[in-house]
Amino acid sequence: MPARENGHEEPVIRDKRKIDPETGQVRETAAAADQATGQPFAEAPAAASPDGELAAQLAERTADLQRLQAEYVNYRRRVERDRAAVREQAVAGALVELLPVLDDIGRARDHGELTGGFAKVAESLEAALTKLGLTSFGQKGEPFDPTVHEALMHSYSPDVTEPTAIEVLQPGYRMGDRVLRPARVAVAEPEDAPAAPNGDAQSEEDN
After folding, report:
1. Which residues have CB under 8 Å from 92's CB, separation 6+?
2. Which is more confident, 101 or 48?
3. Distance CA 182, CA 82 (A)
4. In whole angstroms, what is the distance from residue 27 CA to residue 23 CA?
5. Region for residue 24 given its phi and psi (left: phi exceeds 0; alpha: psi -120 to 50; beta: otherwise)
6. For the whole model, what pTM was predicted?
7. Alpha-carbon distance 61 to 183, whole Å?
8. What whole-number distance in Å separates Cα of residue 57 and Cα of residue 65?
9. Contacts of 74 (CB under 8 A, 6+ apart)
10. Strand (E) or helix (H) holding 46
11. Distance between alpha carbon 184 and the CA centroid of its chain, in Å?
């Protein structure tokens, strides 16, 4: 050891770091010492891979894009569904207002008054309404259905086995599956002979 000026030896400082702070490389002496002791040299932790971070960001952005696309598709479906419902409601409202006109045309046809140019106008109107989805229903002799029929008259008849529309007083109209007006009909039910009261039976025996 070198002697100090006052006669004492100077302390010797040895750098035992295994990584050279200037070059960042493993010192040969440190590696040799690890081999001699049989312990693996602990390398400095590797920095995070840039490719891994880029892949994670790409996956996140892709998921966001897919979510936004799904929300947009659902939004378009809702808009189209609402638009179709509004259109159907508007057409149905206009058709309901024209039903009395069709009733007048039907009565004129039944009485033989639908002739000449008026007949052509009536046919054109009926064709236009059919294109909009308007259809009539209600036939004489069909079973009575309270969901599509409105009974204006009621009677009993031996000619029927179930409640039956024996007369169509006013046709019904529907647009698609929507009933705009039920068919107004006269209904007949099977005729069952009522049991005679006791008083009437006794009077017949007396006679």
Report:
1. 175, 178, 180
2. 101
3. 27
4. 10
5. left
6. 0.58
7. 60
8. 12
9. none
10. none
11. 34
